[in-house]
Amino acid sequence: MTGKPPKDPDPDDAALFRAAVAGTRPVKGRRLVLRQAPPAPRARFRRQDEAQVLRESLLTSPEQLGIESGEELSFRRPGISARSFADLRRGRYAVKAEIDLHGMTSDQAHQELRQFLAEALRDRLQCVRVIHGKGLRSGQRGPVLKLNVNRWLRQWDDVLAFVSAPARDGGTGALYVLLRR
Questions:
Q1: Which of 10, 33, 65, 105 could cysteine-pair with 142, CB 3.0–4.6 Å?
Q2: What is the pLDDT of residues 5-32, one digit of tens each?
Q3: In whole angstroms, how far apart are CA 55 and each of 13, 16, 66, 127?
C-alpha cells in the first residue's frame, strides 16, 4: 500500500457515498471543541514558600541567619584535585543514590544520613545526592538541616568533597557528595 488515495474514485463508490449523505448539509458556524485543554498548572506551594520567605526576611536580619537558605555549600579535602572538584560541581559524576531529609528532625536526619552513607560506602558508590532542603520553613532559625548536614559531612573522613547541586537537581537545597571508594 502506498497510503495515497486513488486519483479517480470508483464510480460505484462515489454513487454509494452520495446516496449515504443525501439530504445532509455541511455544519456552519464555529468549531466544536471536543476536549478542553487542561488548566495551566499552578505553583501553589512555591508561591506559599516564597511568600513565607518574604515575610520572614522582613522580620529577620541576615546576620541572625548564619548560612542563608540560598547560599551554596562546598567542601574539598586536601588531595582532591581541582579538576575532580570542578567535575563534581558540574554534575559530571553519575549520582548512584540519594536521600531526602526533608521534614526530619535533626536527630532523625543525622541517623538516616549516617546509615545512608554507610550503605553507599559498603556498595562502593562514588557519588550520591543528599537533599537537605533550603530551610524555607525554618523561620528565624534559618536552614537547620542545611547547617547540620554541612557540619556532619565535613566530619566524616570518607566524604572527600561536596558541593551544592545545580538547579536541575535541587540547587542550594541539595548536595553532590563525593565518597572514598
A1: 65
A2: 656 778 888 888 889 888 888 777 766 6
A3: 73, 73, 18, 37
Do residues 177 and 162 lie in contact, with contact meaning Cβ atoms separated by under 8 Å? Answer: yes
Is the pTM higher than 0.70? The answer reads: no
For residue 99, what are the contacts with CB-CB under 8 A and spacing of at least 6?
112, 113, 116, 128, 129, 130, 131
Domain ranges for the chain, please list them.
Answer: 67-179
List CB contacts of 30: < 8 A, sequence separation 6 or more: none
Task: Give the domain 67-179 fold.
Answer: Ribosomal Protein S8; Chain: A, domain 1 (3.30.1370)
Residue 27: phi, psi to the nearest 5? -75, 130
